[in-house]
Amino acid sequence: MKALHIGISGWRYTPWRGDFYPKGLRQKDELRYASRAFNSIELNGSFYALQKPERYRQWAQDTPDGFVFSVKGPRYITHIKRLRDAEEGLANFFASGPLELGDKLGPMLWQLPPSLPYDEDVVEAFLALLPASSDAALKLAKASATRRPDQWPTSLKKRALRHAMEVRHASFACPEFARQLRRHGVALVFADAPRKWPYGEDLTAPDFVYLRLHGDKQLYASGYGDAALERWNERIGRWRRGLQPADAELFDPSTRGDRRQREVYGYFDNDIKVRAPYDASKLMALLGLELVDRQAPGAPAGDWS
Fold it and tell me: What whole-number distance in Å separates Cα of residue 99 and Cα of residue 297?
């Protein structure tokens, strides 16, 4: 079966301290702790501001072997430029250092604003700019006129890059958009968000799916009960086996899967009431995911369960 990556969206949340994070845990050790509770985290600081290469290098060092980050693309590209004239923004983003994650770099997430309607030409131009490989991303980064790190990655393995797009305007729920993503090999994000945004489970990337769980009943706040988690457990199992749920909602009803097994990236984003880490842990248990070591360096002694 294909690999499985389950975790949380972000890891720095004040209400989590003294709850999910043990009392006395230093803030700088929170990533070390979280990366030993989950095997993947969605890195969302990159959405709000460009980071630095040394910061990406530190995040890679703080996480164990086999860990994977998904990296959220900058809102400057998605919300301010609204996907138009994106080449400079993409160059600056890749020059800011995500390639420094090396083997720990997973998909890039492009989250669109609710106010952005579907425009086939604009989306096509943006998708055509997305680098499909690390070499293409590095070439794009070196074209940045304003972001010039002291050094470029020197031990970068040539590898394919993955991209996923989350949409929040109802006009995207159309066959044309799903087919467009499929042509470019970009995953449609399955965004569970109490019917707030359009939802589709079209399998548009050839080898992975990307799931974001924003809250079962209340956006960003409510947790997932046993029945809801079991439902996601069953659906994830089907995607990994190359199947599609019979009740899958599709933007393009003419497709019903292609029988290809897929990796799954799934992140809980219901962080307001400290539900995300616990829901992620429960889903991991249902899926049979076990981590060897939850003890993070620099953490206080005691029960980390």
Answer: 25
Give the domain CATH number at 96: 3.20.20.410
* β-strands 187-192, 208-213 pairing: parallel
Q: Residue written as tokens 């004239």?
A: 85
Output the CA angle 163-166-172, nearest 5 degrees: 115
Alpha-carbon distance 251 to 231, whole Å? 21
Region for residue 118 given its phi and psi (left: phi exceeds 0; alpha: psi -120 to 50; beta: otherwise): beta
| Largest Cα span, the chain | 56
Task: Please write the tens of the pLDDT for every residue from 125-163.
Answer: 999 999 999 999 999 999 998 887 777 776 677 889 999
The helix (H) or strand (E) run that includes residue 212 is: strand 208-213
CB 152 within 8 A of CB 141: yes
Task: Provide the domain limits for residue 164.
Answer: 4-287
Asked if residue 75 belongs to a domain, the reply is: yes
pLDDT interval class at 298 (50, 70, 90):
very low
Q: Tell me, yes or no, whether 249 lies in a domain.
A: yes
304 domain-assigned: no
